[in-house]
Amino acid sequence: MTRAQARTGIPLSKSAKGPRSGEAEKRGEQGAGRRSGRWMLRQLSRFTVKTSGLWSTTRSASTGLALVLACLAPLGASTVLGATPFTRFALCIGNESYLEDALRGPAPAARTVCSALRTRGFHATIALNAGHDKMEKALNAFLARLNHRAIGFLFYSGHGIQVQRKSYMLPIDVVPRSPADVQIQGWAIEEILQQMQVVGTPAGIVALDACQKVSYFRDLAPQPEGLVKTVAPPWTYLALSAAPEQNCPSKGKKRFSVYADALAKALMTADLEIDEIFAAVEKEISEATKGRQRPYRSDGIPHDLYLSGSMTRSSYTAQAAASHSIDCPTPQKCYELGEIHYFGKKVPKDLGKAARYYELACNGGDARGCGDLGLLYATARGVKRNLPLAVQLYAKGCNGGFAHACTRLGLAYQKGMGASKSGQKAVIAFEKGCKRDPSQCTYLGFMYERGVGTEKNAKKAAQLYEAACEAKSALGCRNIGLFYNLGTGVFRNYIKAVAFYREACKLKKVYCTYLGYMYDHGQGVEEDDQRAADLYAKSCGAGDARGCASLGTLYENGNGVPQDLGKAAKSYERSCGLAESHCTYLGLLYEQGMGVSKDASKAVQHYRKACDAGDTRGCANLGKMQELGKGTEKNRYKAIASYAKACKKGSEWACKQAKRLR
Q1: Residues ≥6 apart with Cβ < 8 Å to 157
Q2: Nearest to 124 by CA among 153, 95, 86
Q3: What do you get for the CA distance between the two ends of the chain, in Å?
């Protein structure tokens, strides 16, 4: 096998910069020398609009809107969680008289917690020793009472068991002999949390006192102990009496619910926020059991929740503002102070304080304060994450004329983050942003380029990208440069492509890779390897994985820079760290011992990372290693699977290998 074949796992007829034929020419895959222009250009032309780590909920549009308008009130209203307008419902279930594995303690545990909740104003219902029908009726009645004006607290004490990565509460009449029996007769906690979220409750709390070892399935394979680690969905809170995958310490036939006692005690403590309540429970139980039992909690409620009703969010914000000397004479001044604390200009960076200044600015009518406060809620910086509220703030900022808020609103609709996914609504928001600030036209151009929420129109997209570039949008310059490079929506013109790439590079170093590519391949400019290397180094330093990979290739082959396999390895390693789809390059060096110590197992690790990230060559090379047993066990079936992945991504060579092994 030639070195070119070893690098890609695919036979090549030619290498380096010259013309190539066969599969490598069709697929543009890398040979022993420089990468193929076609492959590289396809990588450069992948257009993605980056967002700020947003994550979405599954709330319905109606309940989400009602919730935002009625319960959070961050913009000065007084109706908030903990205030009297909110009804509070609780259901306490205590199951101990099981047909098998009877318990002692759940019934008094349920009574204890129910009593504590009633003192906090909850309408609490108790269900003891509930069979399937009784438990179903109680749960349905409880969930039916929840809405955007009512919060719910479910406490369960009894047997809990995990089946196929879900945690189940069990009625007393269940006699499971298979996992399917549990799924039919039990109630999955994850589904209860999702139902709480869907009905629109501002806060759905589930506390499970279910950590006793269960001896069900004794005739089958051993089941995992404890409950599953579950992240509470937005607007819900999950608390477990013991850490996931663990049982609580055995107490024999003694009353085992130290958890219920600790929870009741914490609930009776005045003015504790919900997470503080369960933190106190965790501390008390850890001390009582000398660390043998450690409760677990997951907080998905994006605001402060006080069960007593003695402190509302507005009064809490006022107290926090007073304690931090929050004061500003005008909305504009509030926004400026928010910027100072956001960026840490001559003061310590404080996102919490920035959020409070933005809120004051927004309340006073400054659209920028609304838009930037929305971004903080969307990214959970300085405040708890609250996507529906972020969308509301974006809309207010957009309507007030802040173009960036329109763009963020459009992205929220495009991705379905905090609002129902809608391409048409995204286009409307992007159009508003584009009209107010041409630099924001890039996002509208993307919708026309892909035909999302509007007709597909490459010519219109090109016009929008060019307008954005003229307004100093680096992304707009990059995109119109790609259009001229590829001849999309415009006549192909390498000279214009270079001009736009140069502007993109000047505005944002991460885009210098594209200009480097033109110098690397002599398109629109004279071929200049040294200039290409400088540009790749600049983009790599700014965090562009492709720039690092391109620089590594130049060092590997000695083009434009002295050949240095050690520097090539460092560049490939940085590229792999930035984007795992680029780990193939580093894997090849480990496989062949070039610039690094030869290590087949590390080569396999990097091929697997690249394959999992969607890289065709990574999958093909992983299949080759699995077939030969290099760096991993020799496994024909795993090799076939890896080849099949590469085949599905377009590698005819991998298709042939998979067919051969079958």
Answers
A1: 92, 93, 94, 95, 96, 105, 106, 107, 109, 110, 113, 209, 210, 257, 260
A2: 153
A3: 22
Q: How many CA atoms does the CB half-sphere of 599 hold within 13 Å?
A: 12
Residues 519, 517: Cα–Cα separation, whole Å: 5
Q: Of the ranges 181-195, 254-268, 595-609, 632-646, which one carries the lowest mean pLDDT score? A: 254-268
pLDDT at 301: 80
Task: Give the 3-state secondary structure of 556-587.
Answer: HHCCCCCCCHHHHHHHHHHHHHHCHHHHHHHH
In sequence order, what DSSP letters do the residues of 579-625 get, joined into one string? -GGGHHHHHHHHHHTSSS---HHHHHHHHHHHHHTT-HHHHHHHHHH
Q: Please write the tens of the pLDDT for every residue from 258-311.
A: 888 889 888 887 667 888 888 889 888 888 888 788 888 888 886 677 775 433
Q: Which two three-digit tokens encode residue 363?
A: 């309340």
Q: If you ran DSSP here, which 8-state letter would residue 223 be given?
A: P
Q: CA–CA separation, 552 vs 556, rounded Å?
A: 6
Most confident stretch, 43-57, 70-84, 518-532: 518-532
Distances (CA, A) of 569 to 171, 586, 588: 59, 6, 10
Fill in the amino acid letter for 325.
S
Give the contacts of 72 (CB within 8 A, at least 6 positions apart): 80, 202, 303, 313, 386, 389
Predicted confidence (pLDDT) at residue 18 exceeds the cutoff of 60: no
Across the chain, mean pLDDT equals 80
Residue 4 φ then ψ, to 5°: -65, -40
Report the alpha-carbon distance of residue 582 to residue 574 in Å, rounded: 9
Q: Measured between alpha carbons, how far is 92 from 97 in angstroms, rounded to an integer? A: 16
Residues 297 and 275: beta-carbon distance below 8 Å? yes
Tokens of 546: 């492709």
Query: What is the distance between the alpha carbons of residues 441 and 406, in angstroms, rounded to a whole number?
Result: 11
d(CA 255, CA 591): 60
Among candidate residues 541, 442, 487, the one with its CA nearest the CA of residue 41: 487
The per-residue pLDDT for 27 is: 33
Instruction: Tell me what the mean pLDDT of segment 336-352 comes to.
Output: 87
